[in-house]
């Protein structure tokens, strides 16, 4: 489980900011929205709010880059590539300094703190610590190409410093060389789902492949049915399994498009709808191509269904930018409740960006689960939780936010005057 993520000097982020999943000492939703582990209370969900261009997506970019680097930086194809980081460019000091990334996380019963500093040319610092209640034990420390490796706690890491390029992470190299600890940590990061809510097609194949397993298929079908999308069932077929009589049921005007998608996707997905007679009686079922007929919102929820199902069942972290894009408020709310539920025993967590102010609801979220993101006068991204604003738990969060009491809203001038001034 994620305890916190910290990033500094990256894109619009100048000074380090902290996204903390450790629960604050407040009494809200104790039995639902937090998870107790190893004498710690961790949040199941954190949402970021803020105006356009405030830096919300840059925080997500930072986490995605952090995760990607851990998994991939040791691969051969990265050997001559510059590190794809970018410092805060609106300050003469920071544009010459490395970017900073750190996370604290729990794997089984052990807490780790891992981070690195990097510019485009090299990893300048890197560290991994095992965190105890009162102490932290370094497993390895790195400054440029000088390494200190804890022989007692990380014995199979000895000697791998000589195999670590200046633009590669030692942790990534350790996993590549099959060290137990390196593989364990990199595997945890690899298990995290990172989704852009406007490009959720990337996860369509995951959902479709899960439909081929009966236990997952049942759960995904139930999620789709309970989302009130007018769909009775979902099924995916291999082309080799596609019978001519099923193809005949596709409306004639959609057959060519369906055939093209079928050949491209290899596993066309059908959504089944009721067909009624003039008396309102269900007389048969009509399958429609998910890709060719269903709405954008329906397709997004289908694409995310595999992610949500796997994450909740297997205790994974899900990171989603633009969570609410193309989804109804009540459906987005249901997704959040899925993670906050006390009826499901899971370590799953959700870290997401939202613009939907209807979700700023004391009956849904704790004050420490809501982060407001805005830029200061120097163009640097800052964050603050609702707890930091000392908002009362009875306050109408959505109303107060839109009134500007928590900052992080745009101050939009009258757009009509732009065109009105141009009239003759």
TrEMBL record:
Name of one Pfam family that matches: AAA_21
Domain ATPase AAA-type core: 47-361
Molecular function GO terms recorded: ATP binding; ATP hydrolysis activity
Name recorded for this polypeptide: ATPase AAA-type core domain-containing protein
Organism: Mucilaginibacter gracilis
